Structure formats: C-alpha cells, structure tokens
Amino acid sequence: MTRVLLISWEYPPVIEGGLARHVRKLSEHLVREGVEVHVLTRGGGHLPAHEVRHEVVVHRVREPEFPKDPSAFVRWVKAMNEHMLEPAHELSDSLPFDLIHSHDWLVARVARTVARCTRVPWLTTIHATEFGRHQGWVQNHPQSHIHAVERAMARRADHVITCSHYMQGHVTAVFGVPPKKITVIPNGIDPKDLEPDASDLPALRARYANPDELLVLLIGRLVYEKGFHLALDALAPVIRRLGNVRFAVAGTGTAEAELKRQARRLRLTRRGSFLGWVGDDMLHALYKVADLCIVPSIYEPFGLVALEAMASGCLCVVADTGGLREVVPGDESVGLRFRAQDANALRGVLERILTDDRTREEVVSEAREYVLQFDWAEVARRTHELYRAMIGAQTVRG
To answer: Which of 80, 103, 236, 258 is deepest in the core (most CB within 10 A)?
Structure first.
C-alpha cells in the first residue's frame, strides 16, 4: 500500500478558502483508492493533535491566528514551517512515507526538507501564483519573497500538479519549469456536498429579492484579481434598464471597502447587498436561490465557483480567461463567457441572458449534467497513478 504525507496550511475544520476543501476531498478519495493518507496541517483551539477523519489520519500543529498585515504574514508562515518540521520528521521516522505531496508555497519549506531528508519524491500542487494574483507586479516585498519561494518550489520539486492547462503554461512561462514536469489534473466537485436545507430557501430568497426580481450573485475573495469592480460597472446600467434585477456579494477581502464605495457611486446601494463572509451552508443556499452567478475574474487558475454554481442550477457568466475557459466551454451550452476585463461586454451578455428565460433554463439543465465529469474519484485515480509513477521512477534511480 502506498503511504503518502499531504502537507497543507489548512484542512477542515480550519478553512481559509478552497484549498482546505480540495485537500480534504482529494485525501478522502485517495483512501478509497487504497492509499494510506496522513495530512500534516495547522490547528488551534480545541482541535486534537491527532485524529482520524473519514479514514484520513490528520496531524495538527498548533499555531496562533495569522496576521492580516502581508509582511507579518510572511514571517508567520516561516514560523509555521519551523513548527511543522519536528512533527514531520517524527512522522517520517515512525511511518516511512513513499511520497510527500504539498500544496502551494505556504508549506514548501517543510515539504522540501522532509522529502530530501527521507529521500522520497516531492510532489507539489500549485493552485495559484503570486505573479498571477498581482499581474506580474512582484518586485516589492512581500510579493517578491512569495514569488521567490514559489519559483524555488516549482523548480526543486520532483513534479508539479496544476489544475488547468492554462496554469501549466503559466508555471512553465513564469518559473521556467518544463511542461513534461507538470501534470494537469482538474479540481473535482461533488454535487451532493452542495445541497442546503431546502426548507430555508424561500425565506432566504425573499431576503434579497422580490418574487418578480432576478437575483445576481457574486461569490469569492474581494480582491482586485477577482474582478468584482467590473461586475458592478456592468450591473449598474443593466439594473437601470431592466429594473427587476438585484445583486448579492458574498465574501470579504482587501477590496471590500472600495467595492462598497463604488456601489454607492454607481447608486447601487439599494439594489444589492454585501453579505460579508458566509459559511458553506449559506454559500450553497445562495447558489440555489440566485438566478445567475458572475465570475468576472482577471486572474483565475481554475474556476471552482463556476462549477459549484452550475452544479447547483445557477446559470453562470464567466470571464473568458485562465482556467475558466476550460471549465466553461465557449459554445454557450453550459454557461456564457464575456471578454475579460471588459465591463461593457459583460453588460451586453447580462442584458441578453436576463431577458431570455427559455435560454437560461436550457443552459442550466445542460450544465447540471456537464459538471458530473469533474468527479473527485477520477481526480484521486489520476493522482494515485502519478504517485505510482513517481515512486517507481525513484526506485529505479535509487
């Protein structure tokens, strides 16, 4: 049996974003593939240092809350890696691992150190890059530090996984990693995980829109690269022209205050709501009660929000960029695209689809079937296949 150590800075119930959910679903489905999975992650509060969750063995290192200041956060990440080193070595001594699989730059140091000390292959999944998040502006600290860590990680790891062909090309171009060293394995989705309490849905819908109104949803981190400012610019004339459209924004982030100011300038305050951070149950319910979800990203490695919306029966309109092109085909069969970074193009798509009930229903129906191909069992199977190939190559070299 293959024994693997997955290292991630978050794992449920510690959730900062999509990474925690990804590592959890991957781990649980790898177990079903016959892999013995141990996850090393951070903990806090009353969480146990060791526990078995759905047959995944989880080892937690207690860490304080991370600071919001970017420079202080970099120092915090360095300390977290230091704190993880000792338990990682102890685990490796007592449970010889066949492979180390880390996720993103936040745990790169501990992963590389343990892999080299134990002489096992090191696989890293790159979910996003600092270069992409900041449109190439990584000259100043702390972006320059994070970029350097990501570049070293991508080059020194024995192999890299990316979630899209777009990200494969991005990692090749930005870090100089040859394409043959990168395997593309898309993220998965489980529609059963998206089912909210149906009895609460009518009241939730009534909270944000009247029965004769259409509800447009924006979900994600409120940061520049997610492009929510473009969506507000597009929504303003659409709402003025159609009159029966409202919007809801779910999420928090560094751009939140500016987005609220923009909404006031555009006279959108009475036509929409900023909900702040919402938990999974609320998130899944919002997908169900909304008529349309916009994913207006400037930089998007994959596009999980689009998949979740489609699986929930919410029509999706996405920017024609990055991994979103691979999630939403360009033929308008399961979702619609607009020219990235172009609010006028988005406005045109919104005006067309919000006034065409029949097309919305047809696209939503097709999308529900389409998303079934993004199956976690297949993600785990392909990941396990890569594990075996890397372990086999290491054995030959050794």
So the answer is: 103
